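help with this record:
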Amino acid sequence: MKSAISTTEAPKAAGPYSQGISFDRLIFTSGQIALDPKTNKLVPGGIREQSRQVMANLKAVLAAAGSDLNNVIKTTVFLKDINDFSTFNEIYAEYFPDTLPARSAFQVAALPLNAMVEIEMIAHR
């Protein structure tokens, strides 16, 4: 059965979409940028700060669905500037100390609110 995932611990959806969808034992998150869920504004700083906020937002969505980062199967990463790739990887690796999920990463022309990074995930419960 398909159901929407919603939590106040991550930014609310800014359009006609859910923070995530669970389907049977699978969880599909919508892309998250570095919005602080309390202020709904981008966190100050660079790629390090934004990457950490994105991961915090995704952890919150996964937790609301009864999962966590240990159950992430696949991530898709969108970077505003591919030159941030190495720095992003340093931060990203902190969140996956054991089995790394499969991943794709791309430089894109632009992200909402001029964010530096957006990530979406597929996980299981």
